[in-house]
Design a protein that fits this description.
It is built from three helices and five strands, in the order βαβααβββ. By secondary structure, the chain is of the alpha+beta class. It has a single domain, classed as Ubiquitin-like (UB roll), CATH 3.10.20.30. Strand 3 and strand 4 form a beta hairpin. Pfam families: ThiS (PF02597).
Length: about 80
Amino acid sequence: MAKCTIRYWAAAKEAAGTAEETVTAVTLGEALAAACLLHPDDRFQRVLGSSSLLVDERPVGRRPHGEVEVADGTVIEVLPPFAGG
């Protein structure tokens, strides 16, 4: 198991109630599952489900989260959809 940091931005930060937290996991899927256990409310789940993810500054895209490995020091960024003009 690796210790990785999840950073939340905008609506994800608001839903999580924190800017970042540390979880232990082997894959991105496990890291997100750990975050969901920490924040079991529906709002967090919805924001997480609609967010783009970066792992060590690289977009995850459509890759299955269970296939994206994490290591000690990995940083996962949760970027919800942004409104803007």
